[in-house]
């Protein structure tokens, strides 16, 4: 019998992040160390300003730590150059943020194709996959709509489809349902959780919604730039 080894999806060692604007220095992260296994679904909660988005941006490789090590899927992303990093990000990490960052000039199907276009894949194959993903999020009837022609919940579903385009092992979400009414929010939450689970992805989700946080199997609470409570690493 072979035992499957659980791999570490995310590892942070002594991560500090300082921002200096004029004479004001903010320590957004003050020495965060954590380990998250592959396939975990982790909610990150904590007060406004606690460092949640900063943590997510650093794990998502959108920002670099001032000091400390960051490993994503075993890769030391803190030592990669910008070019290698953007390629890694494109292939390995899906993003769903409150401000969905869809490109307003492009249709739903084109927005979903975008990570694949950046990776240089063939357009016809991408279009087919984008249509399948949009159908999976219930938008088969909105393929040619531009973001401005879609409701907030529909836009967020396009964002989820786009995040899945490259089948990344890691999905990071920052207040993904923050702008939506309760009914739509619950629908998007169900969709996100189902897709992450069925694709065996790792999910890191920042939220102020404690009900949503409680739906995920693991929780991290941030306080003042530190992990105050860690229900993941022991
Ligand atoms: N780009 C930046 N430049 C300067 N300071 C920043 C920057 N981004 C964040 N900060 C500061 O770092 C601290 C942590 O910010 P962060 O956005 O991580 O908080 P958060 O926990 O996500 O809060 P919220 O729940 O309000 O979104 C805050 O005090 C903020 O002012
Ligand atoms: Mg935030």
What's this, in brief?
The protein is α/β, with parallel strands linked by helices. Helices cover 34% and strands 29% of the residues. The protein is built from seven helices and ten strands.
Q: Strand-and-helix sequence, N→C?
A: EEEHEEHEHHHEHEHEE
| Bound molecule kinds, no repeats | adenosine-5'-triphosphate, magnesium ion
Please report the total strand number as a whole number.
Answer: 10
CATH topology: Rossmann fold
Write the layout of secondary structure elements.
Layout: E1 8-21, E2 24-37, E3 41-45, H1 52-59, E4 67-72, E5 75-76, H2 82-92, E6 93-97, H3 108-118, H4 123-136, H5 152-164, E7 170-174, H6 182-198, E8 202-206, H7 210-215, E9 218-223, E10 226-230
Parallel strand pairs: 3-8, 3-9, 6-7, 7-8
Antiparallel strand pairs: 1-2, 1-4, 4-5, 9-10
Helix pairs in contact: 3-4, 3-5, 4-5, 5-6
Keywords:
single chain; about 230 residues; alpha/beta; Rossmann fold; 6-stranded mixed sheet; 4-stranded antiparallel sheet; binds adenosine-5'-triphosphate; binds magnesium ion
How would you explain this protein's 3D organization?
This protein has 234 residues and is an alpha/beta fold. It has a single domain, classed as P-loop containing nucleotide triphosphate hydrolases (Rossmann fold, 3-Layer(aba) Sandwich). Helices cover 34% and strands 29% of the residues. The chain is built from seven helices and ten strands. The protein has a six-stranded mixed β-sheet with strand order 6-7-8-3-9-10, with helices on both faces. Helix 6 links the parallel strand 7 (170-174) and strand 8 (202-206). The longest helix has 17 residues, at 182-198. It is globular. 39% of the residues are buried. The structure holds adenosine-5'-triphosphate and magnesium ion (MG). Adenosine-5'-triphosphate binds at residues 19, 21, 26, 28, 46, 48-54. The site of magnesium ion has 2 residues, from helix 1.
């Amino acid at each position: 019998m072979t035992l499957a080894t659980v791999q570490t999806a995310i590892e942070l060692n002594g991560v500090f992040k300082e921002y200096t604007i004029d004479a004001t220095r903010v320590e957004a992260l003050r020495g965060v160390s954590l380990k998250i296994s592959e396939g975990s679904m982790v909610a990150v909660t904590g007060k406004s300003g606690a460092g949640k988005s900063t943590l997510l941006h650093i794990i998502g490789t959108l920002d670099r730590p001032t000091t400390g090590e960051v490993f994503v899927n075993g890769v030391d992303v803190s030592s990669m150059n910008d070019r290698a990093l953007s390629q890694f990000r494109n292939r390995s990490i899906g993003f769903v943020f409150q401000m969905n960052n869809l490109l307003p000039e492009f249709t739903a199907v084109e927005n979903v194709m975008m990570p694949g276009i950046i990776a240089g894949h063939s357009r016809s194959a991408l279009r087919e996959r984008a249509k399948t993903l949009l159908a999976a999020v219930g938008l088969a009837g909105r393929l040619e709509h531009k973001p401005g022609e879609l409701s907030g919940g529909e836009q967020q579903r396009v964002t989820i489809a786009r995040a899945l385009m490259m089948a990344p092992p890691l999905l990071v979400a920052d207040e993904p349902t923050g702008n939506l009414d309760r009914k739509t929010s619950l629908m998007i939450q169900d969709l996100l959780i189902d897709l992450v689970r069925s694709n065996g992805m790792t999910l890191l989700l920042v939220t102020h919604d404690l009900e949503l946080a409680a739906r995920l199997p693991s929780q991290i609470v941030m306080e003042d730039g530190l992990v105050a409570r860690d229900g993941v690493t022991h």
